[in-house]
Every structure is written in structure tokens, then in C-alpha cells.
Automatic annotation (TrEMBL), chains A, B, C, D:
Membrane-spanning ranges: none
Protein name: Gfo/Idh/MocA family oxidoreductase
All residue ranges annotated as the Gfo/Idh/MocA-like oxidoreductase N-terminal domain in the record: 5-123
Domain GFO/IDH/MocA-like oxidoreductase: 145-287
Species in which this protein is naturally found: Amycolatopsis rhabdoformis
One family name in Pfam for this protein: GFO_IDH_MocA_C3
Keywords, sorted A to Z: Oxidoreductase
């Protein structure tokens, strides 16, 4: 019988719901060394937090995250709030000896991210673990892609082509939600979408981005102010407010390994709903992936006879594929939420082993430094900007 | 606060695991009038049943399904056993006043299915509800497809083209599991896969299949006997046994509406893992779907200017699509298991409303009659065989 | 310097234009032992034939095909007329010692096809060659598919799934052109489209269809009479006439090898323009093709590690692929008309070698026998109908 | 009866063969005001030029392009040589009053391109016409895409995403052909592939690129020297030479209209053969195209009900689509070479009308200025570089 670990969840919107599903499910699908107990959910509005706790399956609710951090029943704090609060909560939780799972981007600034990475490293010395929630690493197709690269199946990597395309704010009447405000979100498409691309590109290639040249744009500079919101939905009034983040960010990049990268994150790609596309070309093969068809990986083996070769559509639903053995037979695909179940599974396994899970806060910092370089380059007429190591 | 309903699950293999996930999840994703309580899981092997109950999240276990049916805590019996036991369990459960969810195909013979449909109709008079688990009706893309047809967007239906292609027994060394034995499974690809196609074709078109002409084949007639099995995995010995079901079944069909149908179910389509494909052509439009890309529906609107027209890939992940509003933002796809969550959601809603859920046992009987006609046609040199109404 | 061969073309509509393009082009793309000279084009209407000869690049025109057959300058007669005239023209041409290329289906009846095959065999004894124009064998992707099957890359063939889907007569107001009249066309979708499927299925598998069970349907039984026509376009009046051919034909089949087949030809698949789709499943691999993407062949190698396997999209545009070396670099696709250029190339090569080109009139007869069995089965309530060898 | 125009072709390799096919075919497919007569083909090697003239269907051959320009029979000079000779030949031809069709990129330098554009403008005053051969504008799908944009179907353009991916030099043993030498080719992937992207992006959007930030790379810096070559094939020896052009070029861009662009041209995308992909996102819709499936255009209409919307795969093979009416019925796709036939068709139509064909040398210059800005930006650490108007 597995031991239990008490979990405290801070934030209960989109990410809070996704993480809740993971905490409810992980031990039913996987053999994990610790069974999560859903101790407490925290949100600032008491009525909403109470309702969310009941709906999402948490035993209690709180309105002050400090009480979650201080709760003796809580061994792991899961941070699902906007980026402006990540650092404060995470530092307090680590200081209190609680393991921390923190949503991405790790923080809104490099300074915050550095403090978090330092604190995480110090905490790890005491056996306190932390992980940043780049959930897309846990898409089976992308985990499998990483294994192909690691095995050398792609040879020397020449190109990474990564695009994260959405369209939910194409309409200028869409309201000014928190994700469009720099003080809450840090940045726009760049931090929300581009952060995933940067982490994945570094994860898949095993090489870090060493420099960038960027442009960013805000196509719609004023939007109606939000009058009320609930979950993902928001109502708008007649008054307008300023959009203070980017609508789109594009950058070219070089990797330490010598590969070239092309990156684009936008919320203005009409018709693309959650198209996180990544293509990697190497001297021995290539990979292509689109999250809109998340159970498929396209792999070209360049070592085959050219007459026989082509991108093969691998349905990443075989028992031998990462995470898949815990679920259904081949061809019975998984969905978005499984990425979170896999994420907390890996965290629980790391806790059981006493090892540091990945991606670490240091990985999150590495992403943050790239995002920061992108913003600096964009502000400097696209000048080439080295990313500090 | 929703009332509870106690659920008893009979069977704990592939379908038992899928249904368990649904019962654990439904009330966290949807507003349902009754919250399911997972009272008891039943299996013949005590140790395995106990382990399954613990793993899948059921409060207790039993080894005799009659005790589940008699359990006062159980208000709903969920039958996930092989088809040879469906009738006996379902009849007993309905007789005991328990609502019944029964896996497909409804039964192994028309006679059994008729008895079940009769019992279900009688039970419904007493407020006892039943449903056959054709889960693919609850794929959002297919529920949406039905709404397009019902709205007349396809005009007069001319063609249905339905194929369910798998490849898990291509290798002759694959062992003689229960699904390859007529006494357990009733039939092979026909009942396992073809049953889904028949139900979906009738569901999508709103018209029943009135006649068929069929061929069936068993490509590999002897296979190694199973020496031990666990979940989906089975070990094989050196002794061979006879395969007593079809490996593949093909049939042409006519619908009462005048449409033509082409059906194929096979476990010998190398490279197709769970390709349940269906295409519908009408005078005003067409639909195409493949479960291997379950979040997509391809729709051609034939009323458009031809220069502008083409199959459009609708990502069925919009809040306005069936079931989707309970889950994630557009483009964040769902997986196989969601079909079961949607299924029990609809059952619970029907219980709350005091209405009969669909597909009913009568719908299951309608499918059984088609399968029976297919087998009779195949045995009679493909002679056209009318399906009784 | 290659010798010349004089070509006489009978018919100048769709097929006549396509063949003309081939005769104009073949020697510029390929090294052929004989350079075709476009001697004469024949059509019943003098003005139209004269215009067509000028436009399509023929030196002269005729209105009586017998004068083409008798023309000393003509060494090869290319028959592009409706099926009711094939036998008479071909027999006369072979009798006159002219090589014959004849459009498909070979004839409108088995009796005619038998006479043609007999005449062709007799002519071959005298060095006079004949070929039936199943042009789709010359799609590079399909020629390559055949080579994969012939090499054993698919193992034992289990399934052939072949569909030819068009939609040009979905609208009931579309006029009663010759292709909808049995006395001209022989049959409808069956002979026009299904003939291609039957030939391809037998070609790809290397096995003949031994029996069938069929249904056919005419959805729209009366259509406006044609008042005038030009090329592919036709004008319709107010009067209606009877459609005397099938709109759709579906059949199941068995191959001599033991494989099962599923066939469908229809002109009522809204949104499908020229979707000739064929999928072959074997014990060692599978193939899939759709003419709407004619430069692609999808191949699944079932001998690979399952985690690595999937249908690969082979762009059949490599120099090593059949016919491709004569054209453009990889990725620069070919079009429909190239199939005809490849066809006449192979005919000219056979003439140079003094060998019999394929598909022969005997192959055309084999197709005709299958089509005939389909019609007989459909007329006999889908009864299984053996195809004579 | 159409008048004739004598054509002189300079160069007979890949482009010469493609243009020859067009000149042989155009009047048989289209009604053109002038029928091309293939007067003379020119190449430096007499034997090779003679053979090419015979094979490609030209009446005579020459070894000095000046004799072609001076030939009274020649009314139009078609330049298919490497870029280093374009300016000299074109200027001489225009000066001699010959219409000029010139392969892209227009020239190897901006200075040359300016001289050519000036000469073309002056010649146009005298009724002498010129055109640069950006053949991809004549892909029916792209010509149709332009019409959709021009009609406002995409609304305000926000993003252009353009990639031209090939893989023919992935292998370091591939020899140092002229396309890899700066003095012959001007640049590498940038001029060969990127030039097409730039022209298409400006063509499709109707807006010019106003600034860029770029990186370029040469992954393999030395390659075996060519010992002999024939057509597209080349043999290599043991000696190495320096690659003096880019293997890949990436740049971000801004359009005068306010749209953002992302561009990439590479010869190192293993598995991509001729993947010229372009995606355009606007406020009212989006387009996506890949030349590897050249008969398809994917169009998303963002004004539809979101539940109904998605990228539709338009088979651009309808009579109403640009150029298609001259060819085959719907669904019978065209190939690469048709783009050239369409190109010369449009040139002949312009000559008949006495109008200037597009793209003009001024359009070619506009592309050259973008390419030049790309190179300057890449040389200046990706600094934003304004493109002169």
C-alpha cells in the first residue's frame, strides 16, 4: 500500500482544473510510490474557492495561500496562479519544506526566476523537490520524440521550427483579460505560448538556445475592460483599456549545438486553435508534431533508401511508448489532460526515488532567460542578443 | 448537493477500467443530478478482483455478480463482462430494480437480445432504466456529426462507408484469447467492431439497415492456447486451438431510407490500430471521420460555390460542440476514455430526468439483428438477407 | 535517330485530348525506340474533328474511322470512343495489321471482349500488338506499389479496399450525357470507375478476383435530355429521359489468393472529385493511395518495431521511382496526364522490343468478366457469383 | 489562325527542359493569340546543345547567346541560365527589341536587377515586354489564393509564414555544383528558394516587405569538386572546394501593411523534397499551401460559426479555378510543369493584348532588394534592415 502525500492547490481556473484531474487520476492509472491526497484548494474568493473545491474534489478550501503553505497536512504545493505570484508562493513553500510544482512560465522576470532556481537548488539539498509544469514534455509523442533524438536517430540537428498558433483574440471585441496585462502575465503570446516552444526545443534537442533575434507586435492595442469573469469566460463592458503584452512574438535562434531555430507564438492565427507545431531536421532524420493531432508523431528516417522513405505517421499509442502502457490499447488516443497526469506521475516517482524531477526550476530559468533575450532583442531593433548561460 | 447513486461494476478488464475512469470523473467534469458512488467491483478471481477494486477505486469487491445485483447499496449495475453473460446478469439486475448499463454487443444472440429488450421495456414502465454502451456515439465529433445530419446539412443520404480496422492478431502466433472464441464472444471482428459500425451508421443517418449481403473469413484458423492472462496481455503455450470466430466481416447494405452502405470490420489491417472510419455522402454534403484522429470531423458543404468547397477539418473542440464545454479550451483534444465519461453523464442525466437514455436495449437489439443477418447471409453464399424490423 | 510510327486517333473528347498530350510529349521526355507521328484524328462531325485536329496537334482529320484503319501512314490506332464502338474498330484495325491502343473498359460486353482478346492473341502471333488503356497502372505511385507487393514487402495479402468516388452527377439537373446511357457506355459508375478498380486490384495483388457479391443503384432515374454538347460540357433541355446505367456499384469479392476485397464505385460521393482510393493490407505491410494526392503512396512496414512503425507518406517523385527519372527533381509532382504519357511510352518500348505490352486485351477481358459477374450478382439479389477464369 | 512568335531558349538544363515543355504545350491547351515556334536552343557545349535541341524539340541550336538575340526569327528570348548571366543577356535582348522571359532570381545583385528593371521599363515604352519567371504564381492553388485575398476573404492580414524546405544537399558528400557557388548563383537557398517565398508573399498579400532581420548559415563548408555533370546529375572527385553560399536562410519581416512575416529557406530539411509552404492568417480567414500537395489549398473562413469552421481542403481542380478549365475534369490534378505552361500562356496573352505581363522586372527587383536586405542583416548581427522601396 502506497504512502500518501497531501497536496495543496493554489489557483483553480483552467490550470487548477487540469491539475485536479491529474491528482484525482494518477494513482488509478499508474503505480506510484505515493498516493496523492487532495487536502486543500486555495483561491482569493471564498465562495468561488469553496465551489471549486467541491467540484474539483478537494477536501477543504482556503483563501490565503500562506495557510496552505503552513498546513501540516500539505506536503506538496501546486501553484496554478498567474505568473506574478509564482515566486512569492514558491519561495515560501520551499522554505517551509514543501515540494513545489509550479506552472509555467516559472516567473515573470529573470530575477524572480533566478531566486526560485536558487531556492530550489538549496531545497534539493534538504530533499525538498521542485518542478516546473511544462506539461507538453509529457505528451507521449514528444517524450518519444526526445528518445529518438537521444538515440541519435536524427543525427546532427540542423533546424528547429517551432510555432504555437492560437486564435482566441482575433476579434478586437474580445475583452482585456489578465493574460493581456503585463503586470499579471509578464508577457503575452511570448510567455504563454512561446515558453512552451522554448522549453520543448531545448528538451528535444538536448541543446540550449544561445542567441536570438526577435520581433513582437500588438495588433489590437485597446480592448474592452472585463466586467465579470468565470472560469475561462469573461464579460466585457464598453470602456477600453490598453493591451500591455505582445499579441505575437517571432524570433530566429541559434542553439549551442550549431542548429538554427525559427520560433513563432501568436494568438492571431485564425483557424489554429492550439496548434503547437514543432519540426526538427537532422542529418539522419526529421520529426514533425502538431498538438492538434497530439497522438501522432511524424518521423522521417533519412538513412533509408530514398525510394522507400517518407514521413511516417506513428500513432504514439503503443504499450512501448512513454506513459501509454498505463492506458488503453493501440489506437485509442489520449487527450490534453493526460499530460498533467503524466507530469504528476513523474513528480511522485521522483519523490519516491529521492531524485530531482525534470524540468527543474533551473530549466524554467533557462527558458526565462530566452524569453528575456527575445524581449530585449525586439526592443533593440532585432539586434542579435546572446542568452546568458 | 447532488444525491448519490451506488454503482456495482461487473468485470474489470479493459472495459471495466474504462468505465471506472468514467465513474470516478463524471461529476468532476459535468453537473450531474446524481453523484456516482463506486460501491463494488465484481470478478470471479478473488485476488484479482480485490486488486482491481483497489486500483480502480471501488470500495469493495465481490466474486459473484448475484451479490452485486442483490446489494442494497447498488442502484445501478454496469456490465463489462464478455457477451455470453450479458443477458443473465442484465435480466437479473432489471428484475431486482437496478438500472443497467451493458457493454456492447448487447448479447451473443438475437434471442438473448430480444429477452433483454423486452425486460428493459418492462423495467422502464417501473422507472428502471437501461442503456447499451455504444460509447462511440459520445465522441464529440460523432455526436456533432449526428446533429449536422439531423439539421439536414447533408440532404438526402446516398452512401454510408464504414470500416473498423485493427491489426492486433495479424501475427499467427497471437494466442487464442476469449475474443477469438465463439462461445464467449459470440462472433469476432463482426460483433466486436462491426457492432459499433452498425450502431453508428443507424445513429448518424437516423435510418435502419434493412438488408445485407455479407462475406466473412477466418484467415488464421488455429492459434496457440492461452496459458495465462493479465489485463490485455496473454501468454501462449505450444498447443493450438481452433479459432471459432471471424477475423474479418464485410457486407453491403441498404438502409430503409434508400441509402447504400458498405461495411467492413477486420483485425487484419496491418498498421491500422483503431481506425473506425465512417463516411457519409448526401445530396447536400458529406462527412468523414476516423477514430485515430478522434477530435476531427471532416465536413463538405455541397451547397457552396464549387470553387470554394472542400472537406473542412473541424476540430471538434469548441465549447458549442457536444460535451466539450465541460473540458478544455479549443484545440485541447479529448481522448478515448472521455467517451465513457460522456456515456455515464448522459445516463445520469436521464436518471435525473426520469427519461430513457439512448442507445436503448431496443437499439442494441436492432444492431444484433443486423449482425445476425450478416452471419446468415455469409452462410448462404452472400444471399441478400432482409433484417427484421 | 528513332524511327517513326504513324498514329491515328479515333475520338477527340476527354480521352482524345489526354492521349494527344501523351503522343505530343512522350519522345521529349523519354528515350523511345519509335517517335510517334500524329497522322490523323477521326471524329464523326467534320467541323469539330477539323478543329480538334488543329488544336490537339494532328496533321489531318477524318470522319470515318475505317479510313484511319486503312491509312498506310498509320501504324497504330488509338481508340478513344465510347465503349459500344471499341470492338468493331479494334477488330478491323488488328485485322489490318495495325497496333491498337484501346480505351477502357475494353468493351461493353464479355462477348465483345472475348472476340477482342482472341483477335489480339492472333495478331500478336503476327507481331501486331495491343494494349488496353488502364492508365492508372502508370501512376508512378501505383507502379511503385506493385513493385513493393511483388518484392513481398506486404507478405500475404489479406484485404483490398478499393473505392472510386466522384460527385459530378449529384445534382438531379445534370443532363443525360452518353455516359448515363447503357447502349453507349455499357454501364455507369461500374464500367467507368469500377473497371479501373478491378484492373488495379488484380494488377497490384497479382491475383485475380474469383467471385463477387454486388448491389447497384440508380439514385436519379430520370434526367434532362442533352440539347448540345461540347467537350466535357453539355446543355440540357426541359424534357427528361431515363438513366439506364448504375449511379453506384458496390461489391465484396474474393481473390484466388484468398484475400478479401471491398469495392465501391459511385458518382454520388459529394465532395470527392476523383478519389480513386485503394488500400491493401498484408501480413507484412500495408499500402494506401488516393488519386486526389497522386504523388503520394502511404506504406506501412509491419516488420518494424511497433513503436517505430506507421504509414509513411512516400513522395513518389524520386529518380528511382517508376517513370519519374524522365521528369523533374524530387518533390516536383506529376499530374493526371502523365499517366497517358507513361502508357504510350510503355507501348512504344514494347513495340521496339517486339514484346506484348500490358495490360493486354486478355487483361481487359478479365476485368470485363468481373464487371459482368457484378451485374449478374446485383440482378440476383447479391448471390455469390463466380468469375470465370 | 494564330500568328506565330519565334522563341529562342538560352540554357537547357532543368529550367530549359521545363520551359521547353511549356512552349511545346501551351497552344494545345490554351487559346493563345500567338503560337510559339521553337526556333533555337542555345548552350555553350555544341554537342550537348545539339542533343538538347533534338530532345526538347527545338529547330536549331547555337552556342553563342548573342546569335540568338540577333536572330530575326526570334521574337522572344527565354533566359534559363544561372543568375550571373541574366543581366547581360536580358539587356542585349531588350535592346534588340526582343521580348524577354527571364528565370528567377532576376539577377545576382541589386545593381544588375536595377539595370534590368530600367531597361524593361524603357523597352515597354517601345512595346517590348518582359517577365520574370516566378512560376509558382501560376500554381492554380496560389493564383486562387491570391484571388481570395484580393476579394477580402482573409480580412486584414496579420501573419505570413513561408518556408521552402528541400534536402538534396544533406549529405556532405554531395558535390560542389554551380548552385553552391556564389559567383554563379549569387546566393544559396536564399536566392534559389527564398526568392520564390518573397515573391509569393508579396504577390499573395499585395503588400511589400518593408524590413527584415536575418540569419544565414552554411552547415557544410567544403564539398567535393565536380568532375563531370549531366543534367541534374553530377559526379564528384576527391578534392574539396569551398561552399560560398548559404545552406539556409531565416528571416523575420514586416510588411508595409503591418503584417508580420516569418521566412525560412533551406536545403537541409531531411525528408522535405520540395516543400514550399506558405500560410497566411488574416482577421477574416486563413490560407495554407504546400507545394508537395500542389493541387490543394487549405482555407479557413473565420466568419463562419466556430462550431462549423475549419480549414477546408479545396481541390483546386475546378473549371472555375485559374488555368484549370483548359485541362482535365475536377480531381484530375496538374503537376509541376503546368506552372510553366501557365506562365508562357500569360506572357503570350499579354503580348496579344499589348500589355505588360506580371511579374515584371520591377517585381523581380523588389524581390532582389529583399534578398539583399536579408544578406545585409545577416552580416550585421541580424540588425533590422529596411528594404528600400
Amino acid at each position: 500500500m502506497a504512502d500518501e502525500i497531501g497536496v495543496g492547490l493554489v489557483g483553480y481556473a483552467f490550470m487548477g482544473a487540469a491539475h485536479s484531474q491529474a491528482w484525482r487520476t494518477v494513482h488509478h492509472a499508474f503505480d506510484v510510490p505515493l498516493t496523492p491526497r487532495r487536502v486543500v484548494l486555495c483561491g482569493r474568493d471564498a465562495a468561488a474557492a469553496e465551489a471549486a473545491a467541491a467540484k474539483l474534489g478537494w477536501a477543504a478550501f482556503e483563501t490565503d495561500w500562506r495557510r496552505v503553505v503552513d498546513d501540516d497536512e500539505v506536503g506538496l504545493v501546486d501553484i496554478c496562479t498567474p505568473g506574478d505570484t509564482h515566486a512569492e508562493i514558491a519561495l515560501a513553500a520551499l522554505d517551509a519544506g514543501k515540494h513545489v510544482l509550479c506552472e509555467k512560465p516559472l516567473a515573470n522576470t529573470v530575477a524572480e526566476a533566478e531566486a526560485m532556481a536558487d531556492a530550489a537548488a538549496a531545497a534539493a539539498e534538504r530533499g525538498v523537490r521542485s518542478m516546473v509544469a511544462f506539461n507538453y514534455r509529457r505528451v507521449p509523442a514528444l517524450a518519444f520524440a526526445r528518445s529518438l533524438v537521444a538515440q541519435g536517430r536524427l543525427g546532427v540537428i540542423r533546424h528547429v521550427r517551432a510555432q504555437y498558433l492560437q486564435d482566441w483574440i482575433v476579434d478586437p471585441a474580445f475583452p482585456l483579460v489578465w493574460r493581456l496585462q503585463k503586470d499579471k502575465a509578464g508577457s503575452g503570446a511570448l510567455g504563454d505560448l512561446g515558453a512552451h516552444l522554448v522549453d520543448l526545443a531545448q528538451f528535444l534537442t538536448g541543446s540550449r538556445i544561445s542567441g536570438v533575434s526577435a520581433v513582437t507586435e500588438t495588433f489590437v492595442r485597446e480592448r474592452p475592460l472585463v466586467t465579470s469573469s468565470s472560469g475561462l469566460a469573461a464579460s466585457a463592458g464598453a470602456s477600453l483599456g490598453e493591451v500591455t503584452v505582445d499579441d505575437a512574438a517571432l524570433f530566429t535562434a541559434r542553439f549551442a549545438s550549431g542548429a538554427l531555430g525559427s520560433f513563432e507564438a501568436t494568438r492571431f492565427a485564425a483557424g489554429r486553435k492550439n496548434s503547437m507545431r514543432i519540426e526538427v531536421n537532422g542529418s539522419a532524420g526529421s520529426l514533425a508534431f502538431d498538438f492538434e493531432a497530439m497522438n501522432e508523431l511524424h518521423f522521417h528516417d533519412h538513412t533509408l533508401d530514398p525510394a522507400d522513405a517518407g514521413f511516417r505517421r506513428i500513432l504514439v499509442t503503443e504499450p512501448a511508448h512513454p506513459y501509454v502502457g498505463a492506458w488503453w490499447p493501440p489506437g485509442h488516443g489520449l487527450g490534453y489532460e493526460h499530460t498533467f497526469t503524466h507530469e504528476v506521475r513523474d513528480f511522485l516517482v521522483a519523490l519516491g526515488e529521492g531524485s530531482d524531477p525534470a524540468p527543474s526550476f533551473a530549466d524554467g530559468l533557462r527558458v526565462q532567460r530566452v524569453l528575456d533575450a527575445v524581449e530585449r532583442s525586439a526592443a533593440a531593433d532585432s539586434a542579435w542578443t546572446v542568452v546568458p548561460n
